[in-house]
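Contributing: when you submit paired examples, paste them exactly as shown. First protein:
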Amino acid sequence: MDKLTFMREFFKHWRTVGSITPSSKWLVRKMLKPLDFRRANVVVELGPGLGCVTKALLKRMKPTARLIVLEMNEDFCQKLRMIKDSRLIVYHQSALELKQYLGNEQADYVVSGIPLALLSTKDKSRLLSLVRNGLAPDGRFIQFQYSLESYQDLKSTFKAVNLGFTVLNIPPAFVYSCLKQ
């Protein structure tokens, strides 16, 4: 049923959903590999969709950590709110409002499935800057994409960018792990 929901939302809102299917378990594993859950106190997820990464994050996070998610799709937010976990905070909001929801805090990790290639140049630049500024000094930004289109943007924003890839996803995906400092 979740796959049908996802597909329906893709056809209604393809510019913000970005994929016809949810992320595979292999993509989720690759995305979470760079996270050190022992030190993660604040994790942010941008564009969580139906929550396949969200659920995996919550399984690994320590009991005192918090997961802040920003999702623009109201149907997806309703599904996310059905996840009963006190560490999860769901906002029906654009990732471009990240600063408002972090306040003075800094995230240890920001994980994102936002389709950067579909953002305007201005919005992409603003989003990457917001993410970088919202990270703790030793924080990481983990982003998956279906192309290398944003690689140079990430390299110019973050100190180091490691690139991974998985064919075990529809479509196959690149995973960027970006270090703030």
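Second protein:
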Amino acid sequence: MATLSTAAPDPAHQRKVRRNLVILALVCIAPMLASYALYYLWRPGAAKNYGELLQTTPVPEIAQAADNGPFAALKGKWTLLMVDAPACAKPCADKLWQMRQLRLTQGKEMERMTRLWVVDGDGPPDAARLAEYEGTIALPAAQIPGLMRLLREGDPTAHLYVIDPLGNLMMRFPKDPDLNRVKKDLLHLLKVSRIG
């Protein structure tokens, strides 16, 4: 027959058991405390994008374009957009070059992107300049008044813009942009987008 031991409990063993219980409780509570701290105390930094996100607004001529009209090539594509005069001085030529380079840097995704020069002024665009940047679509501003109304805030010739594949004006880059940062924004857009 077994007998019950009446020996006093070992204080070292009791401390070890208490310590293990405290550690176990901390391990269980720590994730909850961390989630509360992150939710209530941590404020994420500024947005990661370089370009200024605009209020997404449909460009009527592109969003409602027919499949065989002048805007057909823009439907379903990410569009890099610039506005400038037909004579196309150096700042205009710089933007054409930037748009071409930005499209090329997208690698295998570049076919998802197109370039649009909205020619704001009288007369046709400089033919030699347009030939130099083959693939850029040039349209007179008068042919796309809905877009021009959207761009009238500030100086539209100072920026590069992005129109999404659904025909929405959605982003603008600063004057004389950092092309590496623009490239990262565009790569991110193309990576996360299921359209275009």
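If you have annotations for the second protein, write them as plain sentences, like these:
The chain has six helices and six strands.
Helices lie at 11-41, 60-63, 90-104, 127-132, 145-151, 179-192.
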